[in-house]
């Protein structure tokens, strides 16, 4: 903890890293700048040396040329000045060369004002000497020989003075300075190289030092803190709290976030543990050898054994002998499922197991005494854990209730069928006149009784069929069936009734085939078309059509009736459900036709649904697996 009154600088890990990187980077930039400056000075020194050498050479060359000019023009003998070479002014070529050399020397001089001044004075002397010689040359050409040679001594003296101006003492001083500079230039270049090497060595040493500091920081501050964080993270899922790191950097922030997450995870684990421990269903884990890894308290009640007795034992040991092969096939099937094909289909199985009888709180009964239970096992295989996570639901009571319900329904329908058969036989005798002639009123009553008895018999048959489907006792004889044949059967069965009702039947031709039980699929179409006729007005039309939908064929029955309320489109497929309008109630019916249709379609692995628009009719669709 910082002392009171002191300010603790809280820097993030990024800021610290930037500081550690920036300091050596700035040092390296400074070193590079110094090296570049030394390189520039060395290049300037070399350039100055080259210029000095060129100046010295140029002064030497000018000295030689001036000496030649002097040899040419200094002799004032009559023969020399009267020669054709002099009279043709050949000296001008030499003077022009000197001017070019002085101009070049001025360009080489750079900022040497002393040399520039001397060169300009020399060029002025050249111009004056050239003008003097030009005048003498013109006078000689004009025949003024005696006049020219009359003041010969003065002219020679004047030319000597101009010669001295062309090559003054300052030129030799400048030449001496340049030579001295050239002499000392290698020494200075060596000094530049030595300073460059020194700066490079210092920069490398500083780079190494800063690298070591950075490594020490990463190892001492970052790596150690990450190691601590890794050790704390290993506590996740154990229920122990995570102790967060102090500080204001990113690692400390991550540590605090992980600590918060661990607290929430522990709370979630406690809730999940409470749910699992208080669940009425058995929740367990089974390893890849078929042995229990863990089981909740409900499993103790289900198996009649304590959890420590169940763990490490094989689950198949507690199953009915006849169900063991089914259980192994189910278990192996879940293990062999790939991640891509994994779903809920095939993940459940009904198995019978034995519960150990006795008082679990006190004594567990011997292995020989057990009672069979029917259970529903739902499992999911985890390849990562190499375990099967399973939920076992005791459905013994439900099975007993279903069995009792089926027995009650069978008894009820049998007890109703017998008197109904007798009543219908008696009504047929009355209608045939075997028991005497009936009045008109009597015939109406007999016909009404016959219709009601027929309706009651159909209701009983529908109830029996639904129970068979729900109990799984209604077999399916799957075969390849042409949809057009089903449409034709419906037309033959209901054609006369539809003609009497003045309702047209339109069949859209189709060549599709499906895999289905012919009789049961015909019953679905019969029920749907019957409903359509029942709720359609005279002069309207019922349409049968089929079209592919993925791997299935969608068969549709469309009418032009009053339609179905939107809130009833799903509920009409329930038992005894009808649309709530008074018009629908007047049509009668058992209320089981659509429920039977849905049950049969579900048996075929398809689905059924209704679409309707008020005042425009309804369409009932169902799908059946297409025959390839």
Rg calc? 60 Å
Shape, per Cα inertia axes: elongated
User: Going across the major beta sheet, what is the strand order?
Assistant: 2-1-7-6-3
Low-confidence segments, given as residue ranges, are 1-9, 338-344, 358-369, 581-585
Largest sheet: 5 strands, antiparallel
Whole-number mean pLDDT: 77
Q: What would you say the CATH architecture of the largest domain is?
A: Up-down Bundle
| Total domains | 4
**How far from one another are the termini?**
79 Å
Fraction of residues in helix: 55-70%
Portion in strands: 5-15%
Structural description of this entry:
It is a single chain. With 628 residues, the protein is α+β, with helices and mostly antiparallel strands. It is 60% helix and 14% strand. The protein folds into four domains: 14-188, Four Helix Bundle (Hemerythrin (Met), subunit A), CATH 1.20.120; 279-394, Beta-Lactamase (2-Layer Sandwich), CATH 3.30.450.20; 400-470; 475-625, Heat Shock Protein 90. Strands 2-1-7-6-3 form a five-stranded antiparallel beta sheet, sandwiched between helices. A five-stranded mixed beta sheet has the order 9-11-12-14-13. Strands 4-5 form a two-stranded antiparallel ribbon. The model is unreliable at 1-9, 338-344, 358-369 and 581-585 (pLDDT under 50).
């Amino acid at each position: 903890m910082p002392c009171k009154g002191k300010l603790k600088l809280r820097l993030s890990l990024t800021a610290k890293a930037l500081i550690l990187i920036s300091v050596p980077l700035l040092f390296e930039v400074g070193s590079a700048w110094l090296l570049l400056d030394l390189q520039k000075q060395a290049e300037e020194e070399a350039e100055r040396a080259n210029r000095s050498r060129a100046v010295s050479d140029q002064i030497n060359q000018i000295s030689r040329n001036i000496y030649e000019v002097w040899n040419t023009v200094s002799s004032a003998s009559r023969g020399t000045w009267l020669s054709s070479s002099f009279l043709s002014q050949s000296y001008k070529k030499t003077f022009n060369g000197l001017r070019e050399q002085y101009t070049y020397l001025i360009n080489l001089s750079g900022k040497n004002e002393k040399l520039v001044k001397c060169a300009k004075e020399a060029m002025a002397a050249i111009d004056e000497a050239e003008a003097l010689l030009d005048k003498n040359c013109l006078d000689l050409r004009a025949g003024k020989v005696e006049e020219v040679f009359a003041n010969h001594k003065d002219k020679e003296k004047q030319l000597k003075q101009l010669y001295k101006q062309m090559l003054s003492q300052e030129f030799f001083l400048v030449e001496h300075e340049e030579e001295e500079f050239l002499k000392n230039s290698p020494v200075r270049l060596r000094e530049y190289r030595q300073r460059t090497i020194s700066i490079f060595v210092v920069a490398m040493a500083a780079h190494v030092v800063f690298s070591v500091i950075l490594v020490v920081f990463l190892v001492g501050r970052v790596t150690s803190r990450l190691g601590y964080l890794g050790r704390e993270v290993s506590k996740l899922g154990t229920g122990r709290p995570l102790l967060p790191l102090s500080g204001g950097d990113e690692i400390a922030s991550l540590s605090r976030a992980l600590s918060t997450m661990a607290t929430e995870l522990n709370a979630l684990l406690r809730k999940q543990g409470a749910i699992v421990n208080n669940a009425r269903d058995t929740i367990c884990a089974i390893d890849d050898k078929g042995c229990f890894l863990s089981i909740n308290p409900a499993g103790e009640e289900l198996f009649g054994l304590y959890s420590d007795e169940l763990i490490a034992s094989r689950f198949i040991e507690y199953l009915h002998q006849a169900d063991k092969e089914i259980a192994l096939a189910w278990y192996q099937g879940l293990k062999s499922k790939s991640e891509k094909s994994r779903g809920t289909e095939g993940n459940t199985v009904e198995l019978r197991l034995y519960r150990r009888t006795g008082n679990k709180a006190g004594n567990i009964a011997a292995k020989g005494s057990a009672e069979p239970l029917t259970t529903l096992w739902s499992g999911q295989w985890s390849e990562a854990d190499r375990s099967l996570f399973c939920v076992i639901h005791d459905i013994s009571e439900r099975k007993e209730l279903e069995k009792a319900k089926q027995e009650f329904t069978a008894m009820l329908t049998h007890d109703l069928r017998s008197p109904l058969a007798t009543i219908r036989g008696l009504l047929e005798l009355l209608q045939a006149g075997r028991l005497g002639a009936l009045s008109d009123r009597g015939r109406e009553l007999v016909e009404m009784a016959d219709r009601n008895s027929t309706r009651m018999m159909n209701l009983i048959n529908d109830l029996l069929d639904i129970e068979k489907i729900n109990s799984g006792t209604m077999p399916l004889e799957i075969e390849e069936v042409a949809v057009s044949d089903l449409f034709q059967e419906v037309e033959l069965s209901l054609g006369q009734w539809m003609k009497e009702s003045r309702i047209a039947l339109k069949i859209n031709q189709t060549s599709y085939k499906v895999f289905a039980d012919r009789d049961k699929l015909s019953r679905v179409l019969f029920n749907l078309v019957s409903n359509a006729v029942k709720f359609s007005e005279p002069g309207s039309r019922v349409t049968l059509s089929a079209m592919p939908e993925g791997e299935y064929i969608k068969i549709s029955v469309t009418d032009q009736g009053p339609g179905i309320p939107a809130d009833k489109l799903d509920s009409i497929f329930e038992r005894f459900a009808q649309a709530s309008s008074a018009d629908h109630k007047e049509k009668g019916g058992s209320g089981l036709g659509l429920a039977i249709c849905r049950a049969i379609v579900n048996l075929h692995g398809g689905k059924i649904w209704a679409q309707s628009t008020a005042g425009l009719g309804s369409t009932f669709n169902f799908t059946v697996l297409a025959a390839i």
